[in-house]
Each structure stands twice: as C-alpha cells, then as structure tokens.
Prior knowledge:
Layout (H helix, E strand, L loop, with lengths): L3 H17 L6 H16 L3 H22 L9 H40 L2 H7 L4 H38 L5 H9 L5 H26 L5 H30 L2
Helix pairs in contact: 1-6, 2-6, 3-4, 3-6, 4-6, 4-7, 4-8, 4-9, 6-8, 8-9
Amino acid sequence: xxxTKPLQDLGRYCxxxxxxxxxxxxxxxxxxxxINEISKLGIDSVPLVIIISVFIGAVITIQMKLNTSxxxxxxxxxxxxxxxxxxxEFSSTILCLILAGKVGSNIASEIGTMRVTEQIDALEIMGVxxxxxxxxxxxxxxxxxxxxxxxxxxGTSILGGLGIAYFTDIISVSRFTYGxxxxxxxxxxxxxxxxxxxFSIIITSTASFxxxxxxxxxxxxxxxxxxxxxxxSIFILFFDVLLTNLLLQ
Length: 249
C-alpha cells in the first residue's frame, strides 16, 4: 500500500507532463502568458533574491573568517572559499529551495483554486488542453528567467561579502578581492546555471501537478501547496546530488 501510492503518483505525473508538453493551440496566447509568467514568477522574485543573497554573502564571509583564522592558511582564503560556496551551492541549490517555497506555493495554490472552483473543468469542456494552457507557460517562463536570478544571486552575494570587508575590519578589501579572483573556474558559473535550470523545471512541474489534481475545497488547496513545496525540495536535493556527480567529475 505504501509503495503503490508513490508509483501511482509517478505514473500520473508522467501522463500529466505528456499533456503539458504538447503543441500550444494558439501561439499568440501562449507567448503572452509566458511573458506574464516571467514577470509574476521571476521579476517579482528579484527583491527576495537580492535581500537573501546580500545577507547570506555577508554571513558566509564572517563565518569563513572565523573558521579559517589558522596562520597556516593564506589571508585571501576567506574570499576564495566564500566565492566557491556561493557559486557551487548557494546561488543554485539553496536559492531554488527558497524559491520553491515562494514560487511553488504560488503555482500550486493558483492552479488548485482553479480546480476547486471548476475553472479547469470549464476549459476542458471548451476543448482546451488545460494542462498545456495553464502549466507550459509557467515552466517555460520560469526556465527562461532562472539563469538571470542565479547570476543576480551570485553578484549580490559577493557584494554582501565585500560589504563586510569594506565596513568592518574582519578582512581587508584587497585580500578579499584577491581571494575572489584567485583560481577562478568559469565552469562553476555554468554548473550553477545548469543546476538552477533543472531545479526550475522541478519546482514548476511539481507544484503544477499537485495543484492540478487537488480535490476538495480551500483547505485541500492549502494542503496541496504544502505537499508541492515539500516534494519540490526533496527532488531538488536528490537532483543536486545527481548533477554534482555528473557535472563535477
């Protein structure tokens, strides 16, 4: 019984994604909805990304300085380790875990509300592929904007670390900057962007799935939103391990 339910959900998810990735019936409406989703899911997330990234960059810098105070380590190690943490994990995995809470719950509650108010049923009656009409613009829109959010997070996190170096005496700006530039590997930036693109598909498709198949009333919409965020986070962590093993070998 415990094994049957996940298998049923997996099969239903595969069928659902087959309906989602079909040719849109009206391209003009599809492009318009995609632009709206880019604005709603991506641009509206910019303030959150900036605030979190600045403070996380500052905290990482402080913690690296406190934990790398050994005389055996060079002074620029703080900047180097801060950069590596930001590029390899924070600006892709941790950022997408945070966005899973904001974007995922938003999508699940929106589509779930449409399901319980029978708006999706009305689309089906009119002969519209509701899964493609509602979900595909969200997946494509968030996929297009997530590289921008990822790079923005990298930049603002590093600025947060620079702010600590500039406004405090924990580490000098010159040493921190030298550490940022030392042994830089361009692939780490692309690695972070690739991971964030995969995670964006996980967030939007998982949240849409749980919202699309919700049953009941307003309380069940809230439950589906919670399940969407939890499952998205689990899948993000699983694929983080998988992609790290594949891309950093």
